[in-house]
Design brief:
four-stranded antiparallel sheet, three-stranded antiparallel sheet, 14 helices, about 350 residues, alpha+beta
């Protein structure tokens, strides 16, 4: 391309830059445009694109810990997960980066979390009919993604090392991906693109299906060997990830195959029996007792209870669209809700 003929070259030339400088900057800008990402020359330029004061943006990159609040959530398996949530102004910056830069980049077809059209349900459906299953869980998934690999994501977009480093700082806390930042999920998929491809190629050679839902890796097929597991383990270790041995292992024969919370069988995917039984019990009593079950006559008044049960039924139906009982009961519950609101 004749960069000297581009609008960018003309612009820089009008700023009285040398022909060499104008050519280099024009080439840089057009590379970014060809990659469908915003042109950013330096952090001051980024502040203008964001409509934000340079001093504030500089504090976000230099002292990012001042722009987060931390809270804890109890894990279903026990213990506590700490969430670092950005304050609104930093969250705005991160959403801008996510929408305008990160989401323009391709991700692996093996990734089902944090991608458009992907879900834990579709992830599980990929393994229908599998005779053997290998599940691998990663320890501290976000924490094992290095700062340098995040910088590389932006460099691959065409940004300079300086701009890429500043963008990476805006998306990290203490050099790591924060659990609560809107940019963290998509960055994790982009960083793992090469790893996903290696694991996919390894699976293809062994006649296996591979999917990844965040830190939950699943391999399935007619036969999964110890040698294959060792190859996967070594690949993950070489990439700096740690396998959670307690949550990883083989599921063989007729043992229940649970993938991202769903039971996968020879013929389809279903929710666990416990959830179906719980919904059936709640729906049955609600339909049987009618308004009295909801208005407090038969217990504590909870106007949100019917929404909770309807939501559970809708979820089951999203997994099991042919479940006749759930379809019928949901119609009755919807009518009961309408009667309650009259």
């Amino acid at each position: 391309m004749a960069y000297q003929e581009s609008r960018w070259f003309k612009f820089f030339n009008e700023q009285q830059l040398s022909a060499n400088q104008a050519t280099l900057l024009a080439k840089y800008a057009q590379t970014l445009e060809s990659n469908s990402v915003p042109v950013i020359f330096e952090i001051e330029h980024l502040s203008k694109l964001l409509g934000m004061e340079l001093s504030l943006l500089s504090r976000m990159t230099g002292a990012s810990s001042l722009f987060y609040r931390q809270f804890s959530l109890k894990k279903r398996s026990g213990g506590v997960r700490f969430i670092d949530s950005p304050y609104p102004k930093l969250a705005y910056v991160q959403r801008w980066i996510k929408n305008n830069i990160l989401e323009t980049r391709p991700v692996s077809s093996s990734a089902f979390a944090y991608v458009q059209g992907g879900s834990h349900i579709e992830n599980a459906r990929k393994h229908i009919g599998a005779k053997e299953l290998l599940k691998i869980d990663l320890v501290d998934f976000f924490g094992h993604i290095s700062f340098s690999s995040i910088v590389s994501i932006f460099e691959e977009c065409g940004y300079s090392r300086s701009v890429s480093t500043q963008l990476a700082k805006l998306c990290t806390l203490w050099g790591k991906l924060p659990q609560g930042a809107p940019t963290s999920p998509v960055i994790s998929n982009l960083v793992l693109l090469a790893l996903d491809k290696r694991l996919q190629n390894l699976s293809d050679k062994n006649g296996l299906v591979f999917t990844r839902y965040a830190d939950d890796l699943c391999f399935s097929g007619n036969e999964i060997t110890e040698e294959f597991y060792s190859s996967v383990y070594d690949t993950l270790e070489n990439e700096g990830f740690v396998v959670n041995e307690k949550k990883s292992g083989f599921v063989l024969g007729n043992k229940r195959k649970l993938i991202t919370g769903l039971v996968v069988s020879e013929s389809g995917v279903r929710v666990p029996k416990k959830m179906r039984r719980e919904y059936r019990k709640q729906a049955h009593y609600m339909i049987k007792n009618g308004i009295e079950q909801l208005n407090g006559e038969l217990g504590i008044f909870d106007p949100l209870y019917i929404d909770e049960v309807i939501g559970k039924g809708q979820y089951i139906l999203s997994v099991e669209p042919d479940n006749a009982y759930v379809k019928e009961s949901l119609c009755k519950l919807s009518k009961l809700k309408s009667d309650l609101l009259v």
